[in-house]
């Protein structure tokens, strides 16, 4: 019995000295594991006489129970201490700012898109969206593109592999398919703008294979070119934040509008800076026109009852003009230094009350 008392004292000392859960587990295994000192003594009970077993059985079982209880108590104490240490090291003062200053910038494309949305939302326009992958009907046919139109050719359009029936899906070349989807699913009056990504096979200083557009559409019974002109002139003045911007509309051709026009803005260049509202030069910034009667028919609308106007403009191009960005390709270069220079603070939410831009 003295031997068991000494063994218990040794094990108790090891349990008390264990300062980690891993060290405590080593003590448990050495004492109560299959080959532990207590377990080995338990195995000797079978070789004892009944009298010896009657005396040693309760003693060994009691030792085993006390050692197990001591280990469990120590384990709880170690877990509590570890939790306290973790809470102390990870303590956060929630009254302090997350970081001394905000990190990251809003991309100019995102900023300009939000500026455009803010302007047209104030005019009563809703935002509409549609898929990037389109079919021929929504991207071309419904928009009055003839079968032999150059825009259908591979040099302009990203086509997917043909399906079993010979038809091919494509990456939309403009956001106009959303106009079709809206007119086919929504009864006039319609007043929407459509920001989104578009794709064409082109790449240079002012063109990229993927770019951003915003289109607008108005359909009702009384819309006319005067409304179109007034809407776009109001937009340009608000967007460039210049009251005396001068514009002109030149006749043009688009398959989906008739009559069609391109809108120019008066400007002059001073060094690398483009200044609107002055000078004697003109810059084209968007295309527009009255919705073609064939487009209305393709969408199930009666052109004798409804009419409307539409326009489209490049978000990337507008960002370049407004904020003096020289190369469109840099928009997609993922250069943190470029974004730090041209980007916007995350708290700069465009609105007409406090101003669109910084």
What do you see in this structure?
This protein is of the alpha+beta class and 358 residues long. The protein folds into 2 domains: 2-89; 108-342, Bira Bifunctional Protein, Domain 2 (BirA Bifunctional Protein, domain 2), CATH 3.30.930.10. The protein is 40% helix and 20% strand. The chain contains 11 helices and 10 strands. The strands form 2 sheets. Strands 1, 4, 5, 6, 7, 8, 9 and 10 form an 8-stranded mixed β-sheet that branches. A two-stranded antiparallel ribbon has the order 2-3. A hairpin with a 2-residue loop joins strand 6 (247-254) and strand 7 (257-270). Helix 5 crosses helix 10 (315-323). The longest helix is centred in the first third of the chain and has 40 residues, at 50-89. It is elongated. The model has no long low-confidence stretch (mean pLDDT 86).
SSE blueprint and pairings:
Blueprint: H1 2-17, H2 21-32, H3 37-43, H4 50-89, H5 108-122, E1 126-127, E2 133-134, H6 136-139, E3 170-171, H7 176-185, E4 190-199, E5 210-220, H8 225-240, E6 247-254, E7 257-270, E8 273-276, E9 281-291, H9 293-298, E10 307-314, H10 315-323, H11 336-342
Parallel strand pairs: 1-4
Antiparallel strand pairs: 2-3, 4-5, 5-10, 6-7, 7-8, 7-9, 9-10
Helix pairs in contact: 1-4, 2-4, 3-4, 5-10
Q: What's the CATH architecture of the largest domain?
A: 2-Layer Sandwich
Structural class: alpha+beta
- Which residue ranges are poorly predicted, with pLDDT under 50 across at least 5 consecutive positions? none
Helix content: 25-40%
**Main β sheet profile:** 8 strands, mixed
Oligomer: single chain
Q: Kindly report the CATH topology of the largest domain.
A: BirA Bifunctional Protein, domain 2
Shape: elongated
Q: Mean pLDDT across all residues, rounded?
A: 86
The number of domains: 2
Strand content: 15-25%
Number of strands: 10
Count of helices? 11
Q: For this structure, what is the CATH class of the largest domain?
A: Alpha Beta
Order of helical and strand elements = HHHHHEEHEHEEHEEEEHEHH
Rg result: 38 Å
Q: CATH-wise, what's the superfamily of the largest domain?
A: Bira Bifunctional Protein, Domain 2
- First-last Cα distance: 87 Å
């Amino acid at each position: 019995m003295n031997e068991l008392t000494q063994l218990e004292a040794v094990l108790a000392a090891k349990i008390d000295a264990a300062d980690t859960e891993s060290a405590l587990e080593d003590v448990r295994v050495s004492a109560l594991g299959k080959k532990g000192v207590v377990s080995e003594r338990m195995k000797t009970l079978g070789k004892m006489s009944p009298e010896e077993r009657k005396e040693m059985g309760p003693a060994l079982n009691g030792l085993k129970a006390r050692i197990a209880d001591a280990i469990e108590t120590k384990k709880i104490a170690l877990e509590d201490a570890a939790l306290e240490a973790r809470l102390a090291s990870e303590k956060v003062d929630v009254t302090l700012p997350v970081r001394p200053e905000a990190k990251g910038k809003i991309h100019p494309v995102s900023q300009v898109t939000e500026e455009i949305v803010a302007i047209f939302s104030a005019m009563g326009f809703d935002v509409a969206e549609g898929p990037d992958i389109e079919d021929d009907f929504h991207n071309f046919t419904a928009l009055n593109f003839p079968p032999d139109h150059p825009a259908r050719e591979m040099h302009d359009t990203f086509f997917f592999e043909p399906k079993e029936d010979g038809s091919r899906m494509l990456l939309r070349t403009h956001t106009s398919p959303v106009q079709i989807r809206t007119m086919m699913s929504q009864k006039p009056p319609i007043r929407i703008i459509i920001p989104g990504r578009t794709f064409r096979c082109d790449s240079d200083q002012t063109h990229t294979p993927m770019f951003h557009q915003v289109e607008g559409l108005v359909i009702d019974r009384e819309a006319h070119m005067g409304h179109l002109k007034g809407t776009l002139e109001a937009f340009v003045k608000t967007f460039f934040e210049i009251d005396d911007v001068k514009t002109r509309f030149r006749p043009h051709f688009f398959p989906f509008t008739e009559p069609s026009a391109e809108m120019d803005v008066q400007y002059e260049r001073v060094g690398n800076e483009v200044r609107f509202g002055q000078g004697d030069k003109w810059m084209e910034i968007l295309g527009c026109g009255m919705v073609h009667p064939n487009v209305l028919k393709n969408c199930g609308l009666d052109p004798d009852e409804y009419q409307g106007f539409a326009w489209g403009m490049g978000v990337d191009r507008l960002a370049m003009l407004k904020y003096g960005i020289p190369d469109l390709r840099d928009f997609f270069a993922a250069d943190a230094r470029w974004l730090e220079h041209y980007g916007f603070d995350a708290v700069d939410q465009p609105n007409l009350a406090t101003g669109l831009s910084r």
